[in-house]
Design brief:
Blueprint lengths: L16 H12 L5 E2 L4 E8 L2 E8 L6 H12 L7 E6 L7 E4 L8 H10 L5 E6 L9 H5 L8 H21 L1 H18 L1
Parallel strand pairs: 4-6
Antiparallel strand pairs: 1-2, 2-3, 5-6
């Protein structure tokens, strides 16, 4: 489940990195995303013999929980099957953090999902988009496209996040967390 806002005006914004990761995965498998039975689009693919469902909410970010609940119900899926991909202003641009569960960290999409599901025990891949400058409102910041000087890093980050999702499917959440979180930590130390 990639989080973002529907509409062309949001396509390349920081807040839509979750959409972009899922779209990249689906495109890589030649999977078309079509309307689901609810407020989402979905498609099927497979990695290492495991079926994967790609889902994008058609709701705005702060109503993502409704789409997640509908998708889980329509697919008869458990929370253990859910991996939410979203932006994170608390991580440097290009860094990833994979968690088994947790709070919303101030992210409206995650807050909506936690409220809708009544729990926070679902995996999430947070994709670093950097903090807003002190002079700028964070809500405005995440709805802006990446700057010209950030585009290369942002595109590489989308690819890395897509690879992280494949790693979760192939090797499991714990093994993927060890690799992804260690690499992100090593990258911060090198900076």
């Amino acid at each position: 489940m990639g989080l973002g806002n529907p509409g062309a005006e949001y396509t390349n914004t920081r807040h839509n990195v979750g959409f972009r990761v899922v779209a990249a995965l689906a495109e890589g498998l030649g999977t078309e995303l079509v309307a689901g039975r609810g407020d989402f689009v979905t498609g099927r693919g497979a990695f290492a013999g495991e079926e994967v469902r790609f889902v994008l909410p058609l709701t705005y970010m702060n109503a993502s929980g409704r789409a997640v609940r509908q998708a889980l119900d329509a697919m008869d899926a458990d929370l253990a099957d859910l991996l939410v991909i979203c932006d994170d202003v608390h991580l440097p641009l290009g860094h990833l953090r994979l968690r088994r569960s947790g709070g919303d960290g101030g992210h409206n999409g995650l807050a909506s999902i936690i409220e809708s599901l009544g729990e926070n025990s679902f995996a999430r891949l947070r994709v670093g988009v950097d903090a807003s400058p002190e002079s700028q409102d964070q809500a405005d910041y995440v709805l802006e496209p990446f700057g010209e000087d950030e585009l290369g890093t942002a595109e590489e980050m989308i690819k890395d996040a897509a690879s992280a999702v494949v790693l979760v499917v192939r090797e499991g959440l714990d093994a993927a967390m060890n690799q992804i979180n260690r690499k992100s930590s090593d990258d911060r130390e090198d900076a």
